[in-house]
């Protein structure tokens, strides 16, 4: 596939986008998602895995809260993947992830994911390049297993935020009492590795593409949420689901 160059993709909405019109459309999508998720749960034939990746402060938590947080919690689970524990490190890198993939009827959301093991560890050179290449191959096999053998539909979103907007949001965490709980001194250090992370992401887009990536402009939350909601709504509608009838004895 043609290599995706993030520097060539805008982090802002298209110029003609209208904020209020877009927000109104998002509200409609979210209302549709409530019914579609209920159908998914009732029919019990498919599952959905939503993967959210992006630089620090790209808006992953907001996407979870404002799009997926509106659905029935019986059918939605969210898993944030932090630094692995010692027990997790003692297993293969997909062990902790595979335990949380969705069963039929469920939507699971990974706030960060198995991709951290070919991003963070690569940027910090905690593993060698040969290991990274093997892991990317394993990721493709893993996603192929889910899609082909468990009717899991995978949506992979990269929330594409600009360096300037990231800096503004990280600074906001030091000033806004409602956001101070998100502050992590290490985020500023990671931000200095912007170029290395961007290169690592572009490599992931190229080599882990069995399931395609959605590059979502994320400088404006209203547009980011619109695209995430629309993409999820569209894939659920394509399943043409129906409520099961009463089973005859």
CATH architect. name: 3-Layer(aba) Sandwich
Q: Report the portion of residues in β strands.
A: 5-15%
Low-confidence stretches: none
Q: Determine the mean pLDDT.
A: 95
Rg estimate, integer Å: 19 Å
Class inferred from helices and paired strands: alpha/beta
Largest sheet: 5 strands, parallel
Q: Which fold name fills CATH's third level, the topology?
A: Rossmann fold
* Strand order in the largest sheet: 2-3-1-4-5
CATH homology group? P-loop containing nucleotide triphosphate hydrolases
Query: What is the count of distinct domains?
Result: 1
Description:
The structure is a single chain. 46% of the residues lie in helices and 13% in strands. The chain has 249 residues and is α/β, with parallel strands linked by helices. The chain has a single domain, classed as Rossmann fold, CATH 3.40.50. A five-stranded parallel beta sheet has the order 2-3-1-4-5, with helices on both faces. Helix 1 (19-43) runs parallel beside helix 10 (221-238). The longest helix is centred in the first third of the chain and has 25 residues, at 19-43. The radius of gyration is 19 Å and the shape is globular.
């Amino acid at each position: 596939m043609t290599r995706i160059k993030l520097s060539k993709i805008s982090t802002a909405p298209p110029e003609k986008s209208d904020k209020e019109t877009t927000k109104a459309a998002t509200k409609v999508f979210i209302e549709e998602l409530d019914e579609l998720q209920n159908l998914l749960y009732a029919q019990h034939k498919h599952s959905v895995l939503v993967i959210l990746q992006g630089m620090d402060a790209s808006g992953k938590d907001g996407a979870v809260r404002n799009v997926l947080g509106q659905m029935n919690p019986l059918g939605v689970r969210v898993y944030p993947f932090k630094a692995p524990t010692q027990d997790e490190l003692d297993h293969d890198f997909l062990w902790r992830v595979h335990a949380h993939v969705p069963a039929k009827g469920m939507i699971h959301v990974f706030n960060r994911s198995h991709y951290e093991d070919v991003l963070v560890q690569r940027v910090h050179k905690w593993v060698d390049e040969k290991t990274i290449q093997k892991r990317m191959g394993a990721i493709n096999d893993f996603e192929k297993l889910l899609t082909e053998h468990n009717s899991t539909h995978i949506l992979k979103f990269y929330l594409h935020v600009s360096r300037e907007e990231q800096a503004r949001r990280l600074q906001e965490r030091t000033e806004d009492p409602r956001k101070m709980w998100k502050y992590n001194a290490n985020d500023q250090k990671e931000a200095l590795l912007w170029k290395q992370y961007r290169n690592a992401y572009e490599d992931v887009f190229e080599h882990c593409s069995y399931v395609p990536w959605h590059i979502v402009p994320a400088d404006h939350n209203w547009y980011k949420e619109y695209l995430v909601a629309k993409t999820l709504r569209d894939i659920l509608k394509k399943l043409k689901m129906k409520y099961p009838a009463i089973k005859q004895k």
